[in-house]
Design goal:
It contains three helices and five strands, in the order βααββαββ. The chain is α+β, with helices and mostly antiparallel strands. Strands 1-2-3-5-4 form a five-stranded antiparallel beta sheet, with helices on one face.
């Protein structure tokens, strides 16, 4: 089955939710696994958010969101009017307020890139999207599919170790947030 859409959306934050909802609905209806639908939704959200934050709208005042499913590949694209800088992956440190978006896209996709054409900039990503053999059960991941897990060794605060401030008796309790001290 081949599923594709081209959606023109306002250059506005509300467009992120609109695109996510439509993409999720169409992919789920075409039998894509739920975990892949989730990954694709995150990727599109990051790409649109970057376009809204860093780039001008297309001459129409909009951003263009496209997705195309061919066989087991899903191509996602977001086009805008370009910016003074080239889209690139930032360092995304724990203390930074941003800069993680394209790193997330890179972790969830098979690959991503940038294309310039006709006064627009398109950031694209490709991911594997095999169709569920049983369209009624799309919650399980396909056999052999690997879920991208980030390497958390660079973030010791996120790793659970025996030297943290929570004693063993509180392992099942909700821990206070380390990001926002009380």
């Amino acid at each position: 089955m081949r599923a594709s859409s081209v959606v023109l959306l306002p250059h506005a934050p509300s467009s992120v939710a609109v695109a996510r909802k439509r993409l999720s609905s169409e992919l789920a209806d075409s039998g894509v696994y739920e975990s892949i639908v989730d990954d694709a939704s995150v990727i599109v959200s990051e790409l649109i958010s970057n376009a809204l934050r860093h780039a001008r709208p297309l001459p129409s005042g909009q951003v263009r969101v496209c997705w195309l499913r061919r066989g087991d590949l899903l191509e996602l694209e977001v086009s805008d009017g370009g910016a003074m800088t080239e889209p690139r992956r930032g360092p995304g440190t724990l203390s930074s307020l941003g800069g993680r978006g394209l790193g997330i896209v890179e972790a969830l996709s098979e690959g991503w890139g940038v294309r310039h054409e006709d006064g627009s900039t398109t950031v694209w990503a490709v991911l594997r999207a095999p169709k569920s053999p049983d369209a009624h059960d799309i919650s399980a991941a396909p056999a052999g599919t690997q879920t991208a897990m980030p390497d958390l060794s660079a973030f010791p605060d996120l790793l659970d170790d025996s030297h943290d401030d929570l004693g063993p008796e509180s392992r099942n309790e909700v821990a206070p947030s380390r990001a926002y001290p009380a």
